Amino acid sequence: MKRASQWILASAVMLGDPMAALADDTPVSKVIGSVSVTNDYIFRGLSQTNRKPAFQPGIEYDDAGGWYVGAWGSNVSWLSDVSTAEARVSSSLEIDGYAGYRGSFSADWAYDVGLYTYYYPGTYPAGFSRPYTTEAYASLTWKGIALKYSYGLTNLFGFADSKHSDYVDLSYNVEFTQGWTLNSHVGHQDVPNSPGYSYYDWRVGVTRAFASGYSIALGYYDTNAKRSAYTNPEGHYVGRATAILTLSKSF
Predict the structure, then answer these.
(1) Within a 13 Å sphere around the CA of 105, how many CA atoms are in the beta-carbon half?
(2) What is the mean pLDDT of the chain?
(3) DSSP per-residue letters across the chain
């Protein structure tokens, strides 16, 4: 999914209770949520807020059978950043919705399939290609290694004639000591019929999780996106290398 934030699920074990382990393994339906603040909203390596902070709430319902549905939001500026006096775009909010199914083959292997849609409410000038995007996704995880494929069912974030785009995401997350997780990722975004706009992005970082449901993540993000393609009218290259600090609270 599109996120610099993470879902953090806390569990408690009742020592001495012979039913505790069984209870932990029994699927239950639940509602989980998170709120995050970050110094820059990075999506697939690109700044969505022109190097400015973002506030990002999310909520998800997980059914005991493996189905889930959720919503996530953030402030953004990338659409208004490309505005001109002649073609003014008024959109400063991203609202996402998603649904899918998660399961596992064994203790080490898991899978996830679903649909994800990105919506940007606002006003757009005549002839402007709307940025609304819907993707189908599937992922396969072995221990801490995850491979995810996202396929564009619509045009991709305002690129005209860009259906059938795809994004491949390979990540590795491992807890190297209690409460500390190493995060790494490399991805490739393909933008059909728009030469020069496809690119790779990568990230390395660390997350510290606390029993209270708080977490803090520090990451280094970079891309090989062409500067000529991804520099906004303010002269900011949105694919540049940058450090991101994110504070999250799960509930």
Answers:
(1) 10
(2) 89
(3) ---SS---------TT-TTHHHHHHS---EEEEEEEEESS-EETTEESSTT--EEEEEEEEE-TTSEEEEEEEEE--HHHHT--SSS--B--EEEEEEEEEEEESSSSEEEEEEEEEEE--SB--TTPPP--EEEEEEEEEETTEEEEEEEESS-STT-TT-TT-EEEEEEEEEEEETTEEEEEEEEEEE-TT-TT--EEEEEEEEEEE-TTSEEEEEEEEEE---TTTSB-TTS-BTTS-EEEEEEEEE-
Tell me the per-residue pLDDT of 93-116, one tens digit each, with 9 for 90 and over. 999 999 999 999 999 999 999 999
Whether the full predicted model's pTM is greater than 0.70, yes or no, is: yes
- Domains in the chain: ranges and CATH: 34-250 (2.40.160.40)
Diameter of the chain by CA atoms? 70
- Please answer whether residues 201 and 45 qualify as being in contact, where contact means their C-beta atoms are separated by less than 8 angstroms: yes
At 5-29, the pLDDT tens digits run 333 333 333 334 443 444 445 689 9
